[in-house]
Please model this.
Amino acid sequence: MIICKDVSKFILKGIELHVPEGITLGVIGASGAGKTTFLKLVSGLLSPESGSIYTLRRDPVAKRKEILKDIAVLFADIPVFNDELSVRDCLNEMRTIYGIRRDRFIERTEYVADILGFKETLDTRVRSLSLGQKRRAELGMTFIRDAGLYIFDEPCIGLDQNAKAAFYRLVKEKREEGATILVSSHDMEDISEVAERILLLDEGEAVFYGSKEELVKKLIPVEECRIKLEGSIPDISDLEVEKLLIENDVMKIYYNSNHVSSKEVIEHICADTIVRSVNFRRQGLGESIKTAHSGRVEK
Model:
């Protein structure tokens, strides 16, 4: 459980939210919006200038030593490996620091290294790894631990699609075990794949906190209706639509689902012509965020 109330640090201000246990939260926003700062406050790496934060029901700064064993973090700007050591040596150092049982450590290392695809680099010095290889191993270090809270800041930098899929799988497994997971990313594919709830930050303020579906509806609830016609092109001048495209016998209607329902669109079209087929598509999360940042949608 994470509770933030009236948090103020650097550019963050007036953030009040509660993240229940077992939830995967995606933290999104433009560069400089405060994503990393938010995660560092939650993890206890930064202290708020005012307000209060409770991570796993404890103050993450005052009780930092107590909660360190219960959280696993990976930040894009904080090195976790000694470049002069091998990946295996770095993982063994972590095992010693956190007191992980040897049998459990061996089991988790084998499992995670296999899924993330870094078995072949376990005995390679960190300085010799490519960005993608290093990121796979860093993710492995995080997932090897059993924690109540996992925090990932831009976890998929340098990863190919196979490694991303492995990350999504491991997040899902930890969520099913009851862990709470926070993920910040510029890649909406990452967020869409793993997050159940979204925190959207804009210039240090929380402009949205809720489900992905609620966010899409709030930002730009545009749906596309693709209609293949049998008869003449109907008159839709009295329908409130965002955009209309006509290509031969196909109509593409873009409309705001907060103002016009799909039922209204179909009933209107069918009353005026013959329809061969109909397909609906709602704008995805990534498209919605891009639209919001382009200035088409007001806060």
In short: The chain has ten helices and 13 strands. Residues 161-176 form the longest helix (16 residues).
